[in-house]
Amino acid sequence: MAANKGPRNATPIKASRQKPERVRRVAGAHSARTSLQDRFRSWRQHHQDSFKDALQRLNAARTSSAMTILVIAIALALPAGLAVLLDNARAITRGWDGNAHLSVFMEMNISEQRQRDLASDWQGLDNISRTEVITREQALAEFKALSGFGDVLEALPDNPLPPLIVVYPDETDPVTLRALENRLAEADGVDLVQLDVEWVRRLHALIELGERLISALTLALAAAVVLVVVNTIRLAIESRREEIVVVKIVGGTDGFVRRPFLYSGFCFGFAGGATAVILVQVALWWLGGPIDELLALYNSEESLTSMAASSLIILPVFSGILGLLGAWLAVGRHLGDIEPNF
Asked: Where is the region Disordered (predicted)?
């Protein structure tokens, strides 16, 4: 009986010794847990460190970084500069539609009073804002002043220029203008009606064509920027292959490894966009003098304007997004191929 007491008493002692160890393990598991605030603080700190690391690496490889940034800048400066020039052309020609008019040439034998009566009657019609009467004498005097053939005209026995009524319409819609042209041509004493707005239509058609060409060029060069960043980030990943392997061995996630490369792509794009703004501004300053002189020869009060204030911000941000996209594509394609070999 006494011999059996020893084994029965051993079990409770052993259980009592194991209980504190289990309690310590549970307590250790609770202490290892991190709060949401700590995780957010760590995530934010890594973003800051990744951004600083991207800037330091761009500064460390200044030559290659400058070449990449310059390529991006040139690719973006071309459509941006053309867009600014097109905006200037649109602003200069914005008021030209108001100069569209119909030249109504009267018969040679019509009286000046009849000419003025027709002009007064037409001014009361719909779609006509005003009319202007140019008599034969006024036409001859104007032609002498502008043509430089005054001596030749003095030698002619009679005035060869017909009387004219200039009609200014309210609208420049092609259908409205054609209907008004036909209506004026049916009046008595009218010899010819000439619509002087075709050149304005051609100019607007050229501007619209330019807008579409710039849009196509922007898409093509934006794709080129993405490809440049993809190739740059791919080379950066290959040069840091061993570092990536070590980070993955110690438990670094793909997101942790990916983040510095994404910031590098954004920095390349943003710097390229800012450089593109500088290139466009320098080009506009260089072209400003000759263009203003040309506009002055045409008695235009307009002048060449630079990029809009919003474009100065939008272009670098847009370029940064393109760089971020290129980096994402490069990292998604090549980062998965780098895994530790055990």
From this structure: 1-33
**Domains of the chain in sequence order:** 49-94+213-337 (no CATH), 101-196 (3.30.70.3040)
Going by C-alpha positions, the residue among 132, 133, 106 that lies closest to residue 188 is 106
Q: Decide: 39 and 199 in contact? Cβ < 8 Å.
A: no
Strand (E) or helix (H) holding 279? helix 254-297
Q: What's this model's pTM, rounded to 2 decimal places?
A: 0.64
Helix, strand or coil for residue 298?
Answer: coil
Alpha-carbon span 18 to 232, nearest angstrom: 58
Q: How many helices (H) and strands (E) does the chain have?
A: 11, 4
Say which residues have a Cβ less than 8 Å from residue 130's Cβ, sequence separation at least 6: 123, 168
Q: Which amino acid is at 65?
A: S
- CB neighbours of residue 181 within 10 Å: 17
| Model confidence pLDDT, tens digit, residues 171-191 | 766 677 788 888 888 888 888
pLDDT in tens, 149-159: 666 666 667 77
| Model pLDDT for residues 122-133, shown as the tens digit of each residue | 887 877 888 889
End-to-end CA gap in the chain: 59
DSSP 168-179: EES---HHHHHH
Residue 88: CB atoms within 10 A of its CB come to: 18
